[in-house]
Specification:
By secondary structure, this protein is mainly α. It is 69% helix and 0% strand.
Length: 163
């Protein structure tokens, strides 16, 4: 998957938000990181993987994909903020299939590792975990790209509407 286009699109959105909210020069790392964690929790909530007390089914694939690309927006934004961009991301060999709850718990741990040590290596490891999660959720690269394009457009519209 070529990530250049998504990083470019995210940079334009970040710049637009910064201009609209007079945030030029603001260090929004903490806000971006917390937003990523919140969005990850929202995605976990849509999978319902941890809700052992409930019989309700997971949300549709479309709903989960929209939540997933919210995560991608903040991942890209964090990378841009830190200067960590890439064209391609080497994916790690597919690990044994874990259950979704374990995967989310491990993902939160990897995110916190990046938070504590904000290196490019930790950033890429975090991003790779999100790609593995996409695979577990049945999202193709094409699914991710198309959903990102759509949500990016919605995000611009929201800014124009005073979101």
């Amino acid at each position: 998957m070529n990530w250049d286009t998504l990083f470019d699109m995210q940079q334009k959105l970040d710049d637009y938000i910064s201009k609209n909210h007079q945030l030029d020069g603001a260090d929004l790392l903490e806000e971006r990181f917390l937003a990523l964690l919140v969005e990850t929790g929202e995605l976990a909530n849509e999978t319902r993987c941890f809700k052992f007390w409930s019989k309700k089914e997971a949300s549709t694939k479309e709903v989960m994909l929209e939540e997933y690309v919210d995560n991608i927006h903040f991942l890209l934004s964090l990378g841009l903020h830190k200067g960590y961009t890439f064209s391609t991301l080497e994916t790690t060999p597919k690990a044994e299939q874990k259950n979704m709850t374990i995967t989310f718990n491990e993902l939160f741990a990897v995110c916190m590792q990046f938070y504590k040590e904000q290196t490019e290596e930790r950033y890429k490891a975090m991003f790779q975990m999100y790609i593995q999660l996409a695979s577990m959720l049945g999202f193709s690269e094409q699914d991710i790209m198309e959903a990102y394009y759509e949500k990016n457009e919605v995000n611009f519209q929201r800014q124009d509407e005073g979101y």
